[in-house]
TrEMBL record:
Domain NAD-dependent epimerase/dehydratase: 4-239
Domain of life: Archaea
Species: Thermoproteota archaeon
InterPro entries: Epimerase_deHydtase (IPR001509), NAD(P)-bd_dom_sf (IPR036291)
Protein's UniProt name: UDP-glucose 4-epimerase
Similarity section: Belongs to the NAD(P)-dependent epimerase/dehydratase family.
């Protein structure tokens, strides 16, 4: 089996590469290294069954030779910073929507791809009134440009799958945490406390409560969906079965770093205590659909955060 991973040097993509490469499959990794790192995949670069292609997919399509005989595409390339959308919305259009269009065009012209797996996001639901939120929840009204870009990508993928005959699997992910992550609340808190171990600035009022999933659970879910999802276009929520608030995350990080008497400074946030424009205040996904296929998260949100802190502390210089 030959795979292609866009964003394969990034946080999720590099962990996916680890899982695929261990089974001696042939994998093409495409990444522009804007948010990913070559260090994440360096151990595989000398392997005969791994090809790395540095390319900005928002500007050009994938060369047909890299998709020759490729049956599965994992499309993970995207700009992951939700906050940037409020000041530079063009970033999410180019790096998420336009990139997805170019990847789909590459797949259409190659004609060998049978399955297309896309990493979408819980942000497509916006401020859902139903918690936990099921896949059929509507209307989906994203409150961030990032969420809107992911929803636009889902629509493009659905149209291409139905028009050009490949299978599409869309995974709406909760907040994924773990080693190699370089954005998000856990990374931000560690970075701030390394700079000032006496005071931690927290965006918002600290009551934002969301679901978190460990990277190992996320990869297991993607691989299970690859094997067991059967519809022409299928959509699955992927997350844990609980949520934690920002105050609790701060306490976990402080405890794992061995700090004491840290002053917590809350910015107060905007629009009811959100951390930034587009910040969803409460999020938890209904994962009963993927559980019916046999996937169950091994770790709770609390456990996932704790493990992620320990992993990231080992990686910090």
């Amino acid at each position: 089996m030959k795979y292609l991973i866009t964003g394969g040097a990034g946080f999720i993509g590099s962990h996916l590469l680890d899982a695929l490469a261990r089974n001696a499959d042939y994998v093409v990794v495409v990444d522009d290294l804007s948010s990913g790192s070559i260090d994440n995949i360096s151990k595989w670069l000398s392997s005969n069954n791994i090809t790395f292609l540095k390319q900005d997919l928002s500007k050009t399509e994938i060369s047909p030779k890299f998709l020759q005989d490729c049956e599965v595409v994992f499309h993970l390339a995207a700009n992951p910073e939700v906050r940037i959308g409020s000041t530079s919305p063009d970033v999410h259009f180019r790096q998420n929507v336009l990139t997805t269009f170019n990847v789909l065009e590459s797949v259409r012209k190659a004609a060998a791809v049978k399955k297309f797996i896309f990493a979408s996001s819980s942000t497509v639901y916006g401020e859902a009134k139903q918690i936990p939120t099921p896949e059929e929840y509507s209307p989906m009204i994203p409150i961030s440009v990032y969420g809107a870009s992911k929803l636009a990508c889902e629509s493009l993928i659905s149209a291409y799958a139905n028009t050009y005959g490949f299978q599409a699997i869309i995974a709406r992910l909760a907040n994924v945490v773990g080693s190699r992550s370089r954005h998000g609340v856990v990374y931000d808190f560690i970075k701030k406390l390394r700079e000032n171990p006496r005071r931690l600035e927290i965006l918002g009022d600290g009551t934002q409560s969301k679901s978190y999933i460990h990277i190992s659970d996320c990869i297991d879910a993607l691989l299970l969906l690859l094997e067991k999802a059967m519809e022409k276009v299928s959509i699955f929520n992927v997350g844990s079965e609980d949520k934690v608030d920002v105050k609790m995350i701060a306490r976990i990080v402080i405890e794992e770093m061995g700090l004491h008497d840290v002053e917590l400074y809350f910015t107060g946030g905007i629009d009811g205590g959100r951390g930034w424009i587009g910040d969803v205040k409460t999020m938890q996904l209904d994962i009963s659909k993927i559980k019916k296929l046999g996937w169950i998260p091994r770790f709770t949100s609390y456990e996932s955060i704790k493990m992620a802190v320990r992993d990231l502390l080992k990686e910090f210089p």
